[in-house]
Amino acid sequence: MKKSSIVDRKIKSLYVHIPFCEHICFYCDFVKIIKPKDVNSINKYLNNLQDELASYGNKFDDIKSIYIGGGTPSCLEINETIRMCEILSSYKKESIDFEYSIELNPESITKEKLEIYKQFGINRLSIGVQTFDNNLLKKIGRIHDNSTAIEKYQLAREVGFSNISIDLMYNLFDQKLDNIKVDLEHIKKLKPDHISWYSLIMKEDSVWGKKNLKLPGNDELFDEVVSKGLKKLGYDWYEVSNYCLNNKYSRHNVTYWNNSLFAGVGVGASGFEQIDGQYFLTVNKGNYASYKKNYEKLSTEDYYFQVIMMGLRMVKGIDLNKTKNKTVYNFYRNIIDKKIDQELLEVVDNFLRCTKKGFNIMNEILVDFL
Ligand SMILES: C[S@@+](CC[C@H](N)C(=O)[O-])C[C@H]1O[C@@H](n2cnc3c(N)ncnc32)[C@H](O)[C@@H]1O
Ligand code: SF4
Description:
The protein is an alpha/beta fold. It is built from 14 helices and 17 strands.
């Protein structure tokens, strides 16, 4: 087949990385640096973002979501925030279901910034609260306290945001089940539309990882309390660590788990792209002043494994009505049948998914697909 006759699948979503933070949390190994004092560095970063976006030509014509993540996008000053939003505004679509999200840290949220986000069409906020316990917040290296988190959440509601997500963590050092119960009480009062509640992962490159700290290992117990507690409050569990009210799941993140194509711009950002019919994982390597996109070509088997690994994170599972997923299912048929016999996987309404037992040992299940 001639290259020119290959029609690539469309890019569905765009991730934009803002790597600047006001402080470094002890558990975090994301690509981030302390915000430089020199404003030219940030302007230069935004200029580079603009060039990188332009290099995609018309590939973003059909995107359904933009996600500005970090780092801490809310730590940009007002003029930098406006510039960032202006650069992205030509990629935003006018359709009513277009999801446009930004990650915020409580301490750097201001009314003026919220109004700018709103004015530029950002319609979903993700606020990094992590825990409502002030002692724990200090221990994990955060610089906000619980009253700031609550106040800024309420401010965002007053400015008119009707889709707000909160990030929380469990299995933190010294965290007790009572702390989780207090977090659940706050959730009950605040009623965020969406919650990402992650179990702490000890990352080698984090401050804690470098000190060789070991995880407390209470995650299964906490997991149970978190998921039962949120269910009681009316939240739907739709992905390993994600819950929502009223079907307000993260449209953007679902594109990752469904193996749709997405582009990542900015230092450290990853993407999943198709070029001339070939799948590539991309990652922008370098530093915030200068970085370069690296392409890792996926073999057919790598691609199939990715469909399984990402898709099984969804509670609903992998849609076997889609031809590409059915092909993957047929490829792994023997392994899948074995896992179904062991009651770790099941097919329900033509979706392949983990059973409750399977969800608890997902990593072990995945190893057998390798
Ligand atoms: C990398 S942060 C970026 C957003 C923002 N700066 C913040 O801190 O909320 C995104 C989320 O990843 C989660 N996260 C980061 N490191 C983690 C780790 N080691 N284990 C579990 N979750 C982690 C936190 O819940 C955090 O809110
Ligand atoms: S968790 Fe957020 S604020 Fe903390 S260091 Fe990581 S990106 Fe920065």
